[in-house]
């Protein structure tokens, strides 16, 4: 398949930006999905030892990708405890 893409790019050089941006978009989407699967507090890979990982998340830990107005390192309030 890579050989076919390279041969098409040699025949039609105007397709090179299309291949570059398509590849970059696919790579970015794959990396974002991998980030969500590995670092999201709502994803549990080990259901026996940690069935509810979101309960262990502290109030000053940032789990969002980007937060506009909140600086999580300066939060000092305690999280509500479960009974």
Structure notes:
This protein has two helices and no strands. With 83 residues, it is mainly alpha-helical.
Summarize the helices and strands and which ones pair or pack:
Elements: H1 2-11, H2 16-39
Short description:
The chain is an all-alpha fold and 83 residues long.
Give descriptors for this structure.
83 residues; 2 domains; elongated; 2 helices; 41% helix; mainly alpha
Structurally, how many domains make up the residues? 2
What structural class do helix, strand and pairing data support? mainly alpha
Unreliable spans = none
Question: Describe the biggest sheet?
Answer: none
Sheet-strand content, in percent, reads under 5%
The count of helical stretches stands at: 2
Q: In total, how many beta strands?
A: 0
Helix content: 40-55%
What's the pLDDT, averaged over the residues?
78
Order of helices and strands: HH
User: What is the terminal-to-terminal distance?
Assistant: 57 Å
Shape descriptor reads elongated
Q: What Rg do the Cα atoms give? A: 21 Å
Keywords: Electron transport, Membrane, Mitochondrion, Mitochondrion inner membrane, Respiratory chain, Transmembrane, Transmembrane helix, Transport
Main location: mitochondrion
Pfam family, one: B12D
Subcellular location: Mitochondrion inner membrane
């Amino acid at each position: 398949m890579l050989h076919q893409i390279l041969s098409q790019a040699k025949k039609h050089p105007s397709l090179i930006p299309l291949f570059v941006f398509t590849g970059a978009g696919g790579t970015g989407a794959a990396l974002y999905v991998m980030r969500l699967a590995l670092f999201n507090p709502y994803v549990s890979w080990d259901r026996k030892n940690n069935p509810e990982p979101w309960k262990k998340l502290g109030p000053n830990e940032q789990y969002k990708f980007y937060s506009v107005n909140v600086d999580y390192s300066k939060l000092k309030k305690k999280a509500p405890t479960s009974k």
